[in-house]
Amino acid sequence: MTYAPAPCLAMQWVPLPSCGSFDGSNIPSHGIQTIAMRRLGCTLTSAISAAPLLVGLSFVSLAVAQEARPVSADSEGLKLSLDQVLTNLEQRNAKRAAELQQFDAKRIYRMQYHGFFKDRDAEMVVNVHFSAPNSKQFTVVSQSGSKFVIDHVFKKLLDAEQEAGKGDNRRETALSRDNYSFALVGYEDAPEGPQYVLSLQPKNNNKYLYRGRIWVDAKDFAVVRIEGEPNRNPSMWITKTDFAHYYAKVDDFWLPSQNCTETSVRFGGKSRLSIDYQDYKVTKAFPVHIIETARIHHLVLPVPLSD
């Protein structure tokens, strides 16, 4: 069946920081905490704390640089400055975001909570259809385990992801120099290829931002990994939240592959929320010069035929 956003319940909804939604080479989805969740203590509060991170992570694309030219390392492995890395990242992300028009994928949401109140586990499989610039359609394929977690964590993450892609949310949660201060802290020769390591600190108190480190592929200038913690503590029940978000190359695009968020709760207990992204199929993509030509001449680009 096709998933429809859950109706607003007669409860007090308190938005929490999140991190997951697609934006050219990333994803967002934010968390929501309710009075009902507080009654369960850590169980859902901890899971939801991961959500705000999930929304901010979706906007890993950087703001487009207007004048700067891309800078490349030479064949001898010349390492770039921080400004050069960020300029390349901005421009490559903007290019990928413009080219990628549609894709289909599958996600598997899992949550495990073990602690003082009560153990809870759940899993939900969702098919996703993305259409540029920010439309996502979710279809729930299967669900098992705690109904409360499914309805008030997983489905709220889907609601939040759709909301985060609207209006000013995309700009205010983007991985950009407007929202973050960056520092170049390393250069690693990973098995997948060399990567620049940057630390980042939020410039404001936006609940969807986070602090930590990002790893940038030195060839494609795409974010391949993010590790960090929320900019703001999502709940008084939470003592610590850490997340790791990974991207993988699909055709010419870097798309989310896995998100793991672990939360420690007051009075004992831990929760682990994971999202696995699988079975990507890019169904529509155009080179930037074709898109620009169509815009100038008011041409309609063809819609891909279904299989």
Could you explain the architecture of this structure?
By secondary structure, the chain is of the alpha+beta class. The protein has one domain. It is 23% helix and 42% strand. It has six helices and twelve strands. The strands form two sheets. It has a ten-stranded antiparallel sheet, with helices on one face. Strands 1-2 form a two-stranded antiparallel ribbon. A hairpin with a 5-residue loop joins strand 8 and strand 9. It is globular and about 55 Å long. The N terminus and C terminus are likely disordered.
Topology, please?
Layout: E1 13-18, E2 30-34, H1 35-39, H2 42-58, H3 82-99, E3 100-115, E4 120-131, E5 135-145, H4 147-164, H5 169-173, E6 180-190, E7 193-202, E8 210-217, E9 223-230, E10 238-250, E11 253-265, E12 269-285, H6 288-296
Antiparallel strand pairs: 1-2, 3-4, 3-12, 4-5, 6-7, 7-8, 8-9, 9-10, 10-11, 11-12
